[in-house]
Every structure is written in C-alpha cells, then in structure tokens.
Amino acid sequence: MKIVVCVKVVPKIEQVRFNPETKTVDRSKATNEINDADKNALESALQIKQKLGGEVVALSMGPPFFEPFLKLCVAMGADDAVLVSDPVLAAADTYATSYVLAQAIERIGFDLVLCGENTADSGTGQVPPQIAEWLGIPNISYASHIDAVDGKIIAKRTVRNGYEVVEAKLPALVSVELGSNTPRFPDFKRKRWADREFRLKVWTAAELGVEFDKVGRLGSKTDVIELKELSTPERRKELITGSEEEIAARLAEIIKAELT
Amino acid sequence: MQEIWVYVECWEGGIEDVSLEVMGKAIGLAAENGMKCSAVVVGYGLEEYVEKLRRYELYRIYYVVDELLKTYDPSTFSKSLHQLVTAYQPAAILFGATYNGTDVAARLAVRTGAGMIAHVIALNIEKETGMLVGDVPGFGGKIVAACKCRPGALQIATVRHGIFNPPEKDEVPKAEVIHFTPQLQKTDTRTVLVDRKVEPRKEISRADRVVIAGMGTGGDLTPIRKLAEKIGAEVAVTRPLADMGAAPRDMQIGSTGYSLKSRLAIVAGASGATHFVSGIRDVKTVISINTDKDAPIFQFSDYCVEGDLFKIIPKLVEKL
C-alpha cells in the first residue's frame, strides 16, 4: 500500500496580524506549524501502514521554508517526503494548487491519498476533492475513521447530524477530519536522522512537468480583490465579582433581563 | 437572460436550511441584476421536495434524476451537474457550505474549470461586471478576503450556514420543473454507502439562546445541559470537545463549525481561541465563566466571571 499524505505548513492563526494600512496579512511574527488536520491524516496513514505494510510519502507545495516541516513528517514515521517548490507556483488558488498536487501525486505513484479535511489558514476544504477530480479517483470527505482491506477503503464520514460509512475501491482519496486521532510524537532517533541525513526530494515546476498556464496566479480561477479585518464587536467586559452566591444571583438577574 | 442557480440539498430532515438561505439571497441578487434564479435538485425520489420548491420565486427547478443518484457520491453528483451546466449554461451556481455541498462543488469546479469562492459570509454582484463577489473568511475567521472569479468561466460559491434568510413562499406553485436525465453508467458510481445514521435536529445557527461548553468542562456537559434546559437554550461546544467526541460536530461553534446570531450566549470553560470567537461575533450578549482571569474569552464577553463553572452554574440554575 503506497500512501501519499498532503500536508501544508500554516501560521498559527492567533499570531497572524492584519495591517489595515497596507491591507495585507502579516505572517512574519507568526510561528509556523504543520496544519493540524494534516497531522491527523499522517497519523491515519501511519496506522494503515502499520497494519498492511507499505510506504508513506509526505507531499507539500510551498516555499523552501517548508522543508524542516516535511522532515518532521519523516521523523513521525513517513518513509519519504516531496516538496514541490517554485516561485511560479506562488499565489495559487485551490484550482491551481490542487492541479500541482495531483501532478505530484501521479509522479510519486499511489494507492491511497490522504489529506486533512481543511487548513487552518483558509479552511475551505476544497483542495482534497479537487485533487481527486484531477486524478479521476473517488473521494471520501470528512472521514473520522479509516480502515483499509482488500484493495478497498472503508471510512466513517461526518455528515449533518450523524455519520455515514462509505466504501471505495483503491486508488482513492480520503480527507481526514480534524481531531479524529492523536498524532504521534516524532521518534527522537528518527528525528535526528531526518534532520541530519535524510534528503527530501524538492521538485521545481519544470521538473514536475506541469502545464505552466495551469499553475500559480496565472492558472488560478479566482482573485482576491481586497483583504479586510472583521471588526470585533465592542463588549462591556464587565467583571462580576463576589462570593459564588453573589455571582450566581447577579448572573441570574442579567440573564432574566436579557431574555425578557 | 442569465441564470443564477442554487443547489438544493435534501436529506432525512427535509430541505437543508442553508439551501433555502442561499436561495433567499440568490432570488434577491437575481432580481436586482436582471437575472433569473433557478434551483437544482440532484437525486432520486425527491419529487416531494421539488414540488415544495415550486412555491418559491424561482424561474425553474432543474431536477436531475436517476436511480444511480439515490445515494450521495461526489463523482456521480459532480458528473451529473457538469452535464446540466453544459446543457443550460448558468452564470453561477451557489451551494450551501455543507459537507456534501463543499465536496461536490469542489469536484464540479475542476470538471468545468470554474472559479470557486468558498464558505462566503457575504455575497454581492459587481454592478460594472455582473460578477459575483464573495467575502471568504480566513485565519480562523478574523480576516476576510473579498474574492471574485475570473471572467469567461462558470462561477461557483459555497455559503456558510446562518448568514442569509430563507425566501418568502408563494400561495401557488409557479416555477417550471425541468427533468434532466444525466448520462450515467453504473461504473460512474465510485463509492458505496454501507451505513448511514442521522437524527434530524434543529440547526444551532438560528438558536435564540445558547450555552456553550469548553474544555474547562472536561467533557462533562451535565451542568451545561441543566442550565440550558432551565432557560430553554440550545447546548453547543467548542472544537476540542467535538474532537473528543463529547458532542457531535453539529453542536460545534467557530470558524470550522457554526456561527451564532443568538440574543444570549453563556460560554463556560472556553479559553477563547481565535477560531472559536469568530463564531460568537454576532451574539448580542456574551457571558463567560472561566477559572483563568487572563483567558482571552473575557475580551469577547459582556459579562466576565472568574470562577469554577461546576460551582457557579448549579447555584445559577437554582436562582433562575
């Protein structure tokens, strides 16, 4: 079983600032991390590998600073990592991003593709089904549990007010729900090896052989015309103090007043 | 005259709330911009809902019907929609940003080369160009990007729950129904539904009052439920609690769950992470209880209580 796991490096959203004068997002002071749901996807992949054997490859598209994060995936247990990195790929929307990832997945070879359900920075969850469409394979989205048997994948997926259990023949793509498992910590020895000796593959757009009119800003189908910060409503921030009795009494008054 | 389509999802609970909300908005946008609004229903045996939709201010209802569409499969649904789009050439299709709506819209966007703007919280049509402009929230919901599709292709948008209002119903059914049989083969269905369990429940985004449990409850929702029952409120949770399985995703508040517009929200034991507070932005009055006086949640609250929810809530319930 060969599993490709798509990962993205995202800034910690709490630390992202908006510059109202330039109307740009300032990520420079934010710590970067592997997108949480992608770690759940990697954990799912590693569990399937433990059960069935095979190979797990972590894949990302992004600038060179993503490299240490892909090495972290290897330290967690991925066998290999590929970074598609090229300035020409920058400013891509989900259409252009999913195209490049699909090309890379095809090049790597796969039975199963796993993605996080969405990313913390943009969080639209479109890229996984879009990759599946480029690859012409079935997809199962928002999976909270995945099992692989006999060339099939069986996933429990979240739907409105409940769940479904869905089966698909491999090759297939599954997007994994955030928080659906507990990602393992990197193994110490493996981490040292990943940091010092492991060489990840870095592919340029030309090396990958993409059609240049389908990638980056040029290949995108949407444009951002303006960035805005949503204003936080003014709140009273009134501190209610006293004994627990007094606090409860005051809260009861407030609630009754609000609801009449 | 160009058409705006609304993809209408039907499930055991009837027509999805968000589908009607999107329709409410689309009918308004179409009227203001000299366009027509039509609905699209994909499935099998959904005549009852198609008939219901005829009472809305719609030009047409495209009923894409085939036995192979009886259960949801992103491959067959997107393939069928692609054929419908090719036959009738709408300017735009709007979807509710549901699990299945997002899924099928994304595949359709690649199939048709459409631009796709996702999870929008505002939607307009630019007067000069006639193009859709949608506000897409990012970074946990604190920053929004106004996005537009490139001209010359289909425009797709998915819309978050609880943003727009459903349309008015007419007395008499008017809208024309177009039955569309897609060209599908058995092999087009790529997934098999083995099991499905859902409980029709009211959607939380429209609740008038809500009590929200955070990690400070440790997953024990007993006091939260008692308080909610006492004041006739809905119970909701933060993301970590839903991750833990303490409550279903449909009760989760924040940028990856639902946004509230309630009169009152009581937030118990939640720290106030960015992705959460975007979900209570439009709540009129927020009361929070947290043991940590420096918890960020207090910056987003009208009334702040530093204390133990397990001690304060039972006393509060007695006094209500």
Describe what this molecule looks like in 3D.
The complex is a heterodimer of chains A (260) and B (320). Chain A has 260 residues and is of the alpha/beta class. Chain A has eight helices and 15 strands. Helix content of chain B is 26%, strand content 30%. Chain B contains eight helices and 18 strands. Chain B has 320 residues and is of the alpha/beta class. Chain B folds into two domains: 3-188, HUPs (Rossmann fold), CATH 3.40.50; 204-319, 3-Layer(aba) Sandwich (Rossmann fold), CATH 3.40.50. Classes of the chains: A alpha/beta (260), B alpha/beta (320). The interface between A and B is large, with 81 and 101 residues.
Map the helices and strands.
The complex is a heterodimer of chains A (260) and B (320).
Chain A: E1 2-6, E2 9-11, E3 17-19, E4 24-26, E5 32-34, H1 36-52, E6 55-61, H2 67-76, E7 80-84, H3 94-108, E8 112-116, H4 127-135, E9 139-149, E10 152-159, E11 162-169, E12 172-176, H5 188-196, E13 201-203, H6 205-208, H7 216-219, E14 222-229, E15 238-240, H8 244-258
Parallel strand pairs in A: 1-6, 1-8, 6-7, 7-13, 8-12, 9-12
Antiparallel strand pairs in A: 2-5, 3-4, 9-10, 10-11
Helix pairs in contact in A: 2-5, 3-4
Chain B: E1 3-8, E2 10-11, E3 14-15, H1 17-32, E4 36-43, H2 47-53, E5 60-65, H3 74-88, E6 92-96, H4 99-112, E7 115-120, E8 122-125, E9 132-138, E10 143-149, E11 155-159, E12 176-180, E13 191-198, E14 209-213, H5 222-231, E15 234-237, H6 239-244, E16 264-268, H7 274-277, E17 285-290, E18 303-306, H8 309-319
Helix pairs in contact in B: 3-4, 5-8
